[in-house]
Specification:
Blueprint: H1 4-11, H2 17-23, H3 29-58, H4 61-65, H5 71-123, H6 130-169, E1 192-196, E2 203-209, E3 212-217, E4 232-241, E5 244-248, H7 249-260, E6 266-273, E7 277-282, E8 285-290, E9 306-313, E10 324-326, E11 336-345, H8 347-359, H9 361-366, E12 369-374, E13 385-390, E14 394-402, E15 408-415, H10 418-421, E16 430-440, H11 449-475, H12 479-496, E17 498-506, E18 510-515, E19 520-526, H13 530-540, E20 548-551, E21 557-562, E22 568-572, E23 582-589, H14 593-607, H15 614-620, H16 646-657, E24 661-665, H17 672-686, E25 692-696, H18 699-709, E26 718-720, H19 734-746, H20 757-765, H21 775-783, E27 787-791, E28 809-813, H22 820-827, E29 833-837, H23 861-869, H24 873-880, E30 886-888, E31 891-892, H25 897-907, E32 913-914, E33 930-934, H26 953-966, E34 976-980, H27 983-995, E35 1004-1008, H28 1009-1012, E36 1017-1023, H29 1037-1044, E37 1047-1055, H30 1057-1061, H31 1068-1079, E38 1081-1083, H32 1085-1104
Parallel strand pairs: 3-5, 11-15, 11-16, 24-29, 24-30, 25-27, 25-28, 26-27, 28-29, 31-32, 33-37, 33-38, 34-35, 34-36, 36-37
Antiparallel strand pairs: 1-4, 2-3, 4-5, 6-7, 6-9, 7-8, 9-10, 12-13, 12-16, 13-14, 14-15, 17-23, 18-19, 19-22, 20-21, 20-23, 21-22
Helix pairs in contact: 1-11, 3-5, 5-6, 6-11, 12-14, 14-22, 16-17, 17-18, 19-21, 25-29, 26-27, 26-32
Domain AAA+ ATPase: 658-862
Protein name: AAA+ ATPase domain-containing protein
Family: Belongs to the DNA2/NAM7 helicase family.
Length: 1105
């Protein structure tokens, strides 16, 4: 049943019901009856045809010819006559039906053209609200699409008619009845069609229906040269005439992004500038952008650079006018504004609603953003019942209805329970700002007419948005997670744009005109504290690309410009005049490079720009991963230790066999680095020309893998990109290799090369005005290496050409610590991925601003926290992927067996075994490996959280004194690690070491637990810091796992045993304290101080012997 308000909206531009049904791909009751009559006629024809065929099959042709009395001959003529009568009847019925249908569709075409003219004139009206204009644009595009579908349908009828005549004239079997709606596969101008790249050619044919085949041409096939063969390619039908249609890939990519993924944007190249516009090129499609639509309106990008832009306005067929784009992503899916629409109540239903408003007056009066959703998504696109949600405080049900005189309104049907009906991020809904005109049904006629007009546009908008969102939702399983991450990353980038800030005190603000170049209003004011502002700008503005902005009341960033002496300030955009002094917080715009690169990777992933498109479907829905294995035969392992570990051997073998993606869970000390290095050795043994990438979110993890590979491979075989402190890795660093290349160029004797060639080459690779690397030279250097090491974000570096490389094998270490977008940076470039991590340890570090509602507003904070921030992408993938695509390293070699067993019991369900050498380890500093310095009786041992992150002065003093006693006994290859859950305590401990002049000497590490993950030491001092308040952060399983599993020999916990036990007998903290009481030593502070000097002196003597 059609949506009632949509019928009204279409009627407003002169569209009759028949045309409306065509727009909505629906048939009228009469058309349905007509379809049935055609099918009945065809059925009669089929029956007579089949009866004749069966009769002939039963007869012997020779007997018919030998029939002397003619009986059989007459019977044959009779059967043929019946068949021919049925054939002619069906043929003429089809002829008549075709003529009727062509006439009806020609009339509809005339109606549609008139309606398009009407909407076009209405769209230029000066009185249009934003909502009305937005709705009219959507309606206009729907009508344009319907017009093209009608043209295509008439051509389809023409093709069918020709085929029908041919069958009749040549005695062929007649075709089944024609369709009353355009067949699904039939192209029309503006339609989006999806092909797999492997199935798309420069020229080809398209089988539509029986006897109907069209030809296609795709002239811009080169656009997708770098796409994977399995990638989905979205094509735009540019023309469809005379049996041939033309596809455009560039227009298809543009329109698909504009309709279904507006927040992704596209990479376009700057072509030229004129007075008002920047002209751009997107894969051959020309675009325009107002200069005011730059993020920084004071910066004009040079020609030939790529910038990311977002579709803003475009015509349906992408002809005549170049599409308009913007650099401001928010404008591509801005919240729409409506003024007021009618909400009608019955007297009996009003009481509950009134009581709610009375008790929540502040919400009702101050909150204007509504979410509107279909009550049942299955009813889309004709959802008559909708949910109206105000903020997160009110949810009610309404019905879209028409009055007898054709006016549309919302009819209140009751309040809904918040717990069951609050909209979730995966739901289909539209966010709108506005209000409702409340009236009783008996007073319906008193509502202003403008509200009913607004309701028409309101309904049209809902109709289109519901329909489009449903298409997206049904098309992408699992995309919600990545789409939400893209939105969160956008919000974070917007927040991080706020750099250094200063309060600017201004005099009265005055409107001073319109900047025609920027297309923005100008407001000016005198600066009262000009000296402070001048000093602030001189210190903070370090780049010509930076600019200043203020935050408007509605959250928009408005650019500001100061005079050279900072005595005057100009604000650009929709500001307001003020007659008195005011304070404006002025920000310097930052460029959050890591987050911008992550957003770019998310965009590329959502666009499908992966080297292996199967990886996208696997990450969207890991349960759907298809195991693809290739036979590799027996392996001869490089590392002999693998011969002693069946699990490691099996994992290496399975990872090499898998063609697309394989996951490895690596608990603490389980030999992840050993396995990674073996996979690299074996892969290059079987594929010596392949390029392998070793990548992690942290530099130290990359160096841990690369350092041992340096001894096995030539320096020219591998390269390390990015920062490294590892001395053994420095010879293969990119910076060293790049400088060696330049030095080689400088040392060339000019006499040995053609005249001018050397100077020309020097100008290319090291121009005088350049302060960085040449990316072409960087790419050249990188391509000569088979093993590349980099961090995830570092992989996006354009300045060294690293962003241009693809890799045959990508190994992602510490994947459990990487954000989804960090993982996507290497995944997008990979033909095959091996991902190694441990979701039982700490998840990725999320920017703290995302947890603060005052800094970043997240609509679905609970979902973000539980499903995105506290659960890594690696965990989602590992837990849901098929068993054949994953395995766990099940033997640890780092910790003494007594600690390894504790870790296995409490964090790995007993599945983590101890390697044989762990049972032979002897304590280095204590009598036992497990030790607890119990501070339960020390009244001074307690945390102070008054100033933010908790601190414990007593603990800092104790650990400083203990380390000072212990460190003198350290051998050159031994380390002490002091770890704590809290940054505040880390700072306090460092201060205590400096105050007491306890030198760290590079052998004592002081860090938070989170930062120390992935590292290890012979002695770990775990400073618990807290002794009073129970917190979820302190008792977090993953953080405890990391804290207790860093040691290679001895562990000393400094803390209150009584505090651990306050968490209850069922808690892990209680059980851990009980385990250590049973298998370790419990110490008092004085006992430990007395014990250490004597013990350490004795052990030093033993070491010397």
């Amino acid at each position: 049943m059609p949506h009632p308000a949509l019928v009204i909206g279409l009627a407003a531009v002169g569209i009759a019901a028949a045309t409306f049904r065509f727009v909505c791909d629906e048939l009228s009751d009469e058309e349905k009856r007509k379809r049935e009559r055609m099918r009945e006629e065809y059925k009669k024809y089929e029956q007579e045809r089949n009866k004749y065929s069966e009769w002939r099959h039963r007869q012997d042709v020779h007997d018919i010819k030998a029939d002397h009395d003619g009986a059989k001959q007459r019977a044959m003529y009779e059967e043929e006559g019946k068949r021919e009568t049925a054939r002619k009847a069906y043929y003429h019925h089809m002829q008549d039906s075709l003529e009727q249908m062509k006439a009806q569709r020609e009339d509809l075409l005339g109606e549609l053209k008139q309606a398009i003219q009407t909407t076009r004139s209405q769209m230029t009206g000066e009185q249009n609200t934003h909502l009305r204009k937005h709705s009219l644009v959507q309606l206009h595009q729907s009508l344009e699409e319907a017009k093209e579908k009608l043209h295509a349908y008439l051509y389809y009828l023409h093709k069918y008619e020709k085929y029908l005549h041919r069958c009749e004239s040549q005695g062929m079997e007649l075709p089944a009845p024609f369709e009353l709606l355009l067949p699904e596969l039939f192209p029309y101008i503006g339609k989006l069609i999806t092909y797999k790249k492997k199935d798309l050619f420069a020229k080809g044919s398209l089988a539509i229906d029986q006897g109907i085949t069209l030809q296609y041409a795709c002239p811009d096939l080169k656009v997708i040269e770098d796409y994977d063969e399995e990638a989905d390619i979205h094509l735009f039908v540019e023309s469809s005439r005379n049996n041939t249609c033309t596809y455009s890939i560039s227009k298809g990519l543009f329109k698909y992004t504009a309709l279904y993924e507006p927040g992704i944007g596209i990479e376009a190249k700057v072509l030229r500038h004129d007075k008002s516009f920047i002209h751009l090129d997107f894969k051959g499609l020309l675009l325009r952008m107002y200069k005011s639509d730059f993020e920084n309106p004071f910066r004009t990008p040079p020609r030939n650079v790529d910038i990311r832009v977002f579709p803003k306005e475009w015509t349906y067929n992408l002809r005549h006018r170049e599409p308009l784009v913007t650099e401001k992503y928010q404008e591509s899916f801005a919240v729409c504004q409506f003024n007021s629409v009618p909400l009608v109540f019955d007297y009996d239903d009003y009481e509950d609603f009134y009581k709610w408003v009375e008790h929540n007056e502040h919400v009702w009066s101050q909150t204007s953003e509504w979410k509107i959703a279909p009550l049942d998504e299955g009813d889309i696109p004709y959802a008559e019942e909708v949910i109206l949600q105000l903020g997160t405080d009110l949810v009610m049900k309404a019905r879209v209805m028409n009055s007898e005189d054709g006016r549309s309104f919302l009819y209140y049907r009751g309040m809904l329970d918040l717990s069951d009906n609050l909209l979730q991020p995966e739901d289909i809904f539209v966010a709108l700002k506005g209000s409702f005109s409340v009236a009783f049904s008996e007073e319906f006629d008193l509502l202003p007419e403008e509200d009913f007009i607004e309701m028409e546009q309101f309904s049209l908008l809902l109709f289109n948005e519901f329909r489009e969102q449903k298409v997206i939702k049904e098309s992408y399983v699992g995309s919600r997670f990545f789409n939400r991450w893209a939105e969160v990353t956008d919000a974070l980038i917007t927040y991080l744009y706020k750099g250094d800030a200063e309060v600017c005190v201004t005099g009265p603000v005055r409107y001073t005109g319109f900047n025609h170049e920027l297309k923005l209003k100008k407001y000016e004011a005198e600066v009262r504290n000009d000296q402070d502002i001048h000093a602030f700008l001189s210190e903070s503005m370090t780049s010509y690309q930076q600019y200043c902005f203020i935050v408007a009341d509605d959250g928009r960033y408005l650019p500001v410009e100061f005079s050279p002496t900072a005595e005057w300030v100009t604000v650009y955009g929709d500001f307001k005049e003020v007659n008195e002094d005011q304070e404006l917080t002025v920000y310097i715009k930052n460029f959050p490079y890591p987050e911008v690169q992550q957003k770019k990777a998310l965009n590329q992933f959502r666009e499908g720009l992966l080297k292996n498109s199967r990886l996208k479907s696997g990450l969207l829905n890991p349960a759907s991963i298809q195991t693809k294995q290739r036979e590799i035969g027996e392996l001869s392992f490089y590392n002999r230790l693998l011969s002693e570990n069946t699990t490691q051997r099996t994992i290496v073998h399975e990872a090499l066999q898998e063609e697309d993606i394989y996951f490895i869970q690596g608990p603490p000390g389980s030999g992840k680095t050993t396995v990674i290095q073996e996979i690299i050795h074996q892969h290059l043994q079987h594929h010596p020309d392949d390029r392998v990438l070793v990548v992690s979110q942290a530099n130290v993890a990359v160096d841990n893998v690369m350092v041992d590979l340096v001894d096995r491979y030539d320096e020219e075989y591998m390269i390390r990109c990015g920062k490294t402190r590892e001395g053994d890795v420095l010879p293969i660093s990119f910076d060293k290799r790049y400088e060696e290349y330049l030095e080689g160029i400088r040392s060339i004797d000019p006499e040995t090369v053609p005249i001018g060639l050397l100077e020309e080459w020097k100008e290319i690779v090291m121009p005088e005005d350049s302060h960085g690397n040449n990316s072409e030279v960087g790419e050249l250097i990188l391509k000569g290496n088979r093993i590349v090491g980099a961090t995830c974000v570092g992989l996006a570096q354009k300045r060294i050409g690293l962003d241009r490389l693809s890799f045959d094998l990508v190994i992602i270490d510490e994947a459990g610590k990487a954000l989804p977008a960090e993982i996507l940076i290497p995944v997008n470039r990979a033909k095959k991925v091996v991902m190694i991590g441990d979701h039982k340890q700490l998840p990725p570090t999320v920017n703290t601003a995302l947890f603060d509602p005052e800094k970043i507003e997240l609509e679905d904070r609970e979902y973000c926290t539980n499903e995105m921030f506290e659960k890594s992408l690696f965990q989602r993938l590992y837990e849901d992927c098929p068993d054949r695509n994953k395995s766990m390293l099940d033997t640890q070699y780092r910790m003494p067996a007594v600690i390894g067993s504790m870790i296995s019991t409490f964090f790995y369900r007993g599945r983590l075994m101890n390697g044989a050498p762990t049972y032979d380890k002897r304590p280095v500093f204590f009598n036992k490996h497990l030790n607890w310095l119990d501070m339960s009786q020390d009244v001074f041992f307690k945390e102070d959280a008054a100033h933010g992150s908790p601190q414990n002065k007593r603990e800092a003093e104790i650990v400083c004194r203990l380390v000072d006693k212990i460190k003198e006994s350290l051998s050159n290859d031994q380390r002490i690690a002091v770890i704590t859950p809290y940054k505040g305590q880390k700072r306090l401990i460092e201060q205590a070491f400096r105050k007491n002049k306890v030198a760290l000497e590079g052998r004592v590490a002081i860090n938070t637990i989170d930062a120390f993950q992935g590292d290890e030491a012979e002695l770990v001092l775990y400073c618990t810091t807290r002794a009073e308040r129970k917190t979820k952060f302190f008792s977090d399983y993953a953080r405890l796992n990391v804290a207790l599993s860093r040691t290679k020999s001895d562990l000393l916990i400094i803390g209150s045993r009584d505090y651990f036990k306050t968490y209850g007998e069922d808690s892990m903290l209680y059980q851990i304290s009980s385990y250590i009481e049973e298998y370790g030593d419990m110490w008092r502070y004085k006992e430990l101080l007395d014990f250490l000097p004597e013990t350490l002196e004795g052990r030093n003597t033993l070491l010397q012997r």
